[in-house]
Amino acid sequence: MTDHWNAIRGHWQLLGPPLRPPAEAVETYERELNLSNAHVVLLGVTPELAGLGATMTAVDESSAMIAGIWPGDTALRKAINGHWLDLPIPNTSVDAVIGDGCLSALGLSTERKALFAAIAGVLRTDGRAGLRLFAGPETPDDPAEVRAFALSGGVSTFHELKWRVAMTATGDAPDHAIPVRTIAERFDALFPDREELSARTGWDLPVIGTIDVYRNSPAIYSFTPAPTLVSEAEAFFGDVRIASTGGYGLAERCPLLVLRAPRRRR
Ligand SMILES: C[S@@+](CC[C@H](N)C(=O)[O-])C[C@H]1O[C@@H](n2cnc3c(N)ncnc32)[C@H](O)[C@@H]1O
Fold it and tell me: What is the pTM of this model?
């Protein structure tokens, strides 16, 4: 999995919403979780979220991502190497946990539940968490409709199109998973002529080329419907809700999953 993220780091500057959180999504974390005085754990090293909270520990398994995109440690903020399912953070020690797209980086429902358990374990009793979702529809989208929508100029960014293509081919419950290389194969089948796609949408060919890093990836993503994630989370939190993150392209499928009242395991 770290190889996959190392490859993505190479074109990080070409990425954009909805993969990277726009300002209105960053404001949603602050508004929903009241972070200004909080000790925050960030899952991953998403630079847009690095300024939130009073103090922050970011946890990422990829030292290349930490070196490549984390804005740098300060007296109040640091990034450490670690796995989210075995968080190198003491139990009941943090006010808030945040993360962007983390649940989609896990391909199995059992891994998602393990992440909810890990988050509940490190939060204080009054702690809260916010995870921006990449949530698929209950029924996969029709590929022909996605193609027509893109060619008519209805898709805001190439990155939104990547997610829409993935959401035509996501597997069944409980995992709702798709191998990342399958996203590239589906894209090639739907859009064999990249120059036509570029001409119709105005997207630069190097941006469209960011799909190519998916071709040899061993990673598996998941695009689980939001109601399923809410019910998975309710086993670990007494208070689970969904908050809109704004009006950018695909925002309706990228809400913030807000988790409060962590349940203590006996
Ligand atoms: C936060 S996620 C998603 C970021 C962004 N929103 C996107 O979709 O491209 C990406 C980061 O998570 C890290 N990551 C993925 N799975 C991880 C895991 N199980 N433990 C620790 N870090 C992980 C990767 O190394 C990468 O830096």
Answer: 0.95
